[in-house]
Structure prediction request, 158 residues.
Amino acid sequence: MVVGCLIQHDNKVLLCKRKIQPSYGLWTLPAGYLEIGESATEGAIRETREEANAEVEVLSPFAQLDIPLIGQTYIIFLAKLKKPHFSPGPESSECRLFSLDDIPFDSLSFSSMVVTLSMYAEDIKSGKLKFHYGVINKRLGTSPSDIHAYTLDNHMQS
Prediction:
């Protein structure tokens, strides 16, 4: 299970540039693998602290995305900064706030990030944040960094 935070601050979202493989040099939400002994929210808060040196308050779940081909489930939470301070952790080379219009969609690290941020942008434009569930079906033989080689199936929102 991969857990992370979609952090809202001043009508912007916090993204981290990866300093590790896969997807070195590409942008992502602060997220990573859940560890034994922690809840999904605890893991998302820890990953945010590790990747962005940011303290956050989790507001609500935003998305669950299953990726059967690689045996992963992503749970992304909406969160806000407790203090407006952040900086790159050991796995990030840069952390930055992006307005919706400036999100670097062509430089995102994984299809899960493209899907999450696209759904978020659509929700913001519609004026109502929803919870999303979907299945990301990656094309066989594609790399984790190939952000266009997928379909989003079974998309449900509430």
In short: The mean pLDDT is 96. DSSP finds two helices and nine strands in the chain. The two ends are 22 Å apart (CA to CA). Strands lie at 2-9, 12-18, 27-28, 31-33, 56-67, 72-81, 92-99, 132-138, 150-157.
